[in-house]
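hiii so um. not sure if this is the right channel but i have a protein structure encoded as tokens and i wanna go backwards to a sequence. like what aa goes where. can anyone help
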């Protein structure tokens, strides 16, 4: 096991202006290709963090997350829940945060489309999440087309609220999502663990990468773990949607103008198949 360093080069005037692979050896597209992840410390500005946390609290405390899960569980229905994550202003802003999308564009080397957005608050002592990957299939069966997850840690990580464990390079071998779930979040050979990140940090992973949430050692910390993840897919095939109401989700994003007129493929329906329950 090794703990991943999380330092990154910063522009002297705008710490987020340099978050592109061009001329930046610390944010290497080759690293992402080889290992399946990169770390973007402090990507999310403090002002956006401050608006996201109350939205996550509302999402959890008002039962909106539970209703969203219930809407996805009814696989025959396409009716969206009363509120979708991207309808909350700060969540919509994070989804299309320009420095993030520029990094993803560098990774993809091609247009990409939004797949889904999740938001949660993990209480102190939250259990681990077993080893898994999150890649969905596309209708060409093309493993070279990228699906990436942006894992946003609004409060950072400090070793007391659970850590992110990953197996570098595991994205290159096809397997079922739950092939290693029987191991829980136990240590695997060659894994790296991220347990220290500043607030507002993001880890970009290839969605086929094996990863797990490692529970915090006892006693757990007192602070909750604010976590938002967003998924994006390279165009070139049609991807399986994550939610039965995916059309309404994309239409809402277009109505809200979340792409800012700069990312024409980001919410286009033509990049998806019909919904089918994930295996």
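sure thing!! here u go:
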């Amino acid at each position: 096991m090794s703990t991943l360093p999380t330092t990154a080069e910063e522009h002297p005037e705008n710490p987020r202006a340099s978050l592109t692979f061009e001329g930046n050896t610390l944010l290497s597209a080759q690293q992402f290709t080889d290992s399946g992840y990169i770390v973007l410390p402090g990507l999310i500005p403090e002002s956006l963090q401050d608006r996201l946390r109350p939205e996550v609290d509302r999402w959890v405390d008002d039962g909106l997350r539970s209703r969203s899960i219930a809407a996805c569980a009814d696989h025959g229905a396409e009716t969206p829940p009363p509120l979708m994550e991207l309808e909350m202003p700060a969540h919509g802003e994070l989804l299309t945060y320009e420095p993030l999308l520029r990094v993803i564009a560098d990774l993809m080397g091609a247009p990409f489309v939004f797949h889904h957005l999740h938001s949660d608050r993990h209480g102190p002592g939250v259990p681990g999440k077993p080893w898994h990957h999150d890649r969905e299939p596309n209708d060409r069966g093309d493993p070279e087309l990228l699906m990436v997850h942006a894992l946003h840690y609004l409060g950072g990580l400090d070793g007391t609220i659970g850590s992110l464990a990953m197996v570098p390079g595991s994205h290159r071998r096809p397997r079922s999502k739950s092939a290693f779930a029987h191991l829980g979040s136990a240590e695997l050979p060659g894994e790296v663990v991220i347990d220290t990140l500043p607030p507002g940090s993001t880890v970009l992973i290839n969605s086929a990468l094996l990863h797990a949430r490692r529970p915090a050692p006892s006693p757990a910390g007192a602070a909750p773990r604010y976590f938002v993840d967003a998924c994006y897919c390279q165009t070139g095939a049609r991807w399986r949607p994550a939610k039965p109401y995916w059309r309404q989700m994309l239409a809402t994003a277009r109505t809200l103008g979340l792409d800012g007129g700069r990312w024409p493929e980001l919410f286009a329906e033509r990049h998806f198949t019909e919904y089918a329950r994930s295996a």
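oh and Helices lie at 29-35, 46-61, 64-73, 89-95, 98-108, 246-255.
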